[in-house]
Amino acid sequence: MGEGLLANNMVDYGWLESEKGDIIWTSSDIDSTYFAGGNGKNRTKIGMLKLKKGRYKLRYRSDDSHSAQSFNFPPPEDTLSWGITMYSLPKDQYNSLEKIFIKDNSTTFLNGQNVFKLILASDNSIWAATNLGISKINRETHEVVNYRKNKSANKSLSSELVNDIVEDMNGNIWIATEDGLNMLEPKKWKNYYS
Q: How far is CA 69 from CA 61, 76, 79, in A?
C-alpha cells in the first residue's frame, strides 16, 4: 500500500529485487493499483509471485508527506498494511488464489480514482465521467469499455479529466473535459476546442 498522485504516478511504493538487482515486482505504476480507502491517493496493489530459492531485496520508497505514522489526508482503511506485507502460502492455497488473480486481471474496471458523474443512457448503458476518462458499462453483461485520451489518434478525448457528461435527444454523448468539449456519436468522435 502506498500513495499515488495522478500527475506523478506513485510517490510511496515498493518493489522486490533479485540478488542481481533486477526488479521482479513493483507497485510503482498507479494504473495497476486500487483505491485503499480514505483519501483517493491511498493506493494498494496485490500480487502473487513464485519465488525461486535465493536472496532478494525488498525496497520501499516514501516521501515525507504521507506515511504509516503520519497521514496528511484521511488514512486508508487498514493503516497497518501501509508499505509491503508478504505472506508465504501453501501450494494449494496459491493455486486457488492464482485462478482468482488471473480472472481479476482479465476483467476491465472503471477508469480513474474519482467518479464525477454517472448517467443512464437511452440504450440502458451507464456512463461514468472520471478523472481518467469515461467508462461505459453494459447493465446486462457488466462489460466495461473505457475511453481515454489517445495521443496518437486524431479523434479521442481531448483530456482525461472529465468534468461532466450528458446524453442529448439523438443519443449522442457529450463530454466536458478540462481541455474542450467532445461528442461521441455512435462509433464517431467530434472534438470542440475553445
A: 15, 12, 9
C-alpha cell at 102: 488471473
- Provide the whole-model pTM: 0.58
What residues does 15 pair with on adjacent strands? Answer: 26, 59
CB 176 within 8 A of CB 164: yes
**Three cell numbers, residue 139:** 447493465
The distance from CA 108 to its chain's CA centroid, rounded to whole angstroms, is 10
pLDDT digits (tens, 9 = 90+) for 88-139: 888 888 888 888 777 766 666 777 767 889 999 999 999 999 888 898 999 8
Compute the distance between CA of residue 96 and CA of residue 167 in angstroms, rounded to an integer. Answer: 43
What's the rounded Cα separation, in Å, for the pair 47 and 104?
11
Pairing of strands 173-177, 162-167: antiparallel
| Domains contained in the chain, CATH given | 2-89 (no CATH), 115-192 (2.40.10)
Q: How far apart are the C-alpha atoms of 147 and 12, rounded to whole Å?
A: 27
Collapsing DSSP states into helix, strand and coil, what is residue 47?
coil
pLDDT of residue 75: 85
Residue tagged 481518467 (cell numbers): 132
Cell numbers standing for residue 167? 446524453
